[in-house]
Design a protein that fits this description.
This protein is of the alpha/beta class. The chain is 29% helix and 17% strand. It has nine helices and twelve strands. Strands 1, 4, 9, 10 and 11 form a five-stranded mixed beta sheet that branches. The relative contact order is 0.18.
Length: 334
């Protein structure tokens, strides 16, 4: 008998905030190096223990999780993983965040450099002279954390005979909804600031209501000494960019039709999002613009799920955003 078959599963494993981490403490991965279970984490080994297949055409039905009292404890983690996968598939936050900070409480203040642009220059210092300082302080206002989530609106009787592979698709859609809502929060902070008087400056195009290639070049040039490496455009502005002759040459067209990614002459990643107001492009230096603050990971009401009370069981994520360097964000507006 392998060691993971002796692990006792109960609800208390969820109390730490990470079921997999708590389970791994009882059943360490290193015990399986070189065995047939190498490469599986502690949760996946428990699926093997109870013979639960969660993917593929012949995946088991939801009821398989509830064949024993111990196997039912695995169901909330199945839900969390499916939701997390949906978030990752729809997530563009890694493309616009410079750092992710995980906190245990509800209060968090971000850092910022208090110096003006002139003070950031490393000027020559004479012997014995005072060396200029860079002051790092906490911001005046707390980062606003929002709880974003969805409720499952289905009875156990309605889903008990559904294949886990199909049920996971619905859960991944919930994850995608959460991810898109978090993106709206992030864009709101980039645009309007994080409550510390740091809304992004707006640069208007040369001709009102129109977007020219020269406007993009000037926008890119305005970022010095930062680097404009990411642009988030509203759908109408994305269409204007794609219709520019500079983006319809053979090389750019081939790249767009083969990968769906737009190539910009200055190498910035171009992202389309309906969360950006019409007629706007948000430009950022991805390496200095935005911090994501998370209070834990995906949270599920595990008591309800274990007890087969799927209806109104909440799946949520608590997160917020803060600007790191105000100069790393600008808005181009027509």
């Amino acid at each position: 008998m392998t060691e993971f078959e002796n692990v006792k599963l109960d609800k208390s494993l969820y109390s730490s905030g990470s079921f997999t981490r708590a389970l791994s403490a009882l059943d360490p991965d290193e015990n399986y190096r070189g065995s047939s279970f190498d490469g599986l984490d502690a949760y996946q080994r428990q699926l093997k223990r109870f013979g639960i297949k969660v993917s593929g055409a012949d995946s088991d039905i939801v009821e398989k999780f509830f064949s024993t009292a111990q196997s039912s404890v695995l169901f909330p983690e199945f839900v969390s993983r499916a939701v997390r996968r949906g978030m990752e598939q729809a997530d563009i936050l890694p493309d616009i965040t410079a750092a992710v900070t995980n906190i245990a409480g509800a209060d968090y203040r971000s850092l910022y450099c208090a110096n003006e642009d002139d003070d950031k220059e490393l000027k020559a210092v004479g012997e014995g002279a005072f060396i200029p300082e860079t002051q790092i302080r906490t911001k005046e206002n707390l980062v606003s954390l929002n709880k974003r989530g969805r409720s499952l609106v289905a009875s156990y009787e309605a889903v008990r005979y559904q294949r886990l592979d199909l049920f996971a698709i619905t859960l991944r859609q919930i994850g995608a909804y959460i991810s898109r809502t978090l993106l709206k929060d992030a864009i709101s902070v980039l645009k309007d600031g994080d409550g510390n008087g740091n809304a992004a400056p707006v640069i208007n195009t040369a001709s009102a209501g129109t977007l020219a290639y020269s406007d993009l070049v000037d926008f890119w040039n305005s970022f010095d000494p930062y680097e404009l490496n990411t642009m988030i455009a509203s759908p109408d502005m994305m269409a204007k960019i794609l219709n520019m002759s500079e983006f319809r040459d053979a090389a750019a067209g081939l790249a767009f039709h083969s990968t769906g990614e737009v190539v910009t002459p200055f190498g910035a990643k171009l992202i389309k999002s309906a969360a950006v107001p019409q007629g706007k492009i948000i430009g950022i230096d991805k390496n200095a613009a935005l911090e994501m603050v998370k209070a834990g990971s995906i949270m599920t009401e595990y008591d309800k799920l274990i007890d087969r009370q799927l209806e109104r069981a909440v799946i949520s994520c608590t997160a917020g955003f803060a600007k790191i360097d105000d100069g790393a964000v600008k808005i181009l507006s027509i």
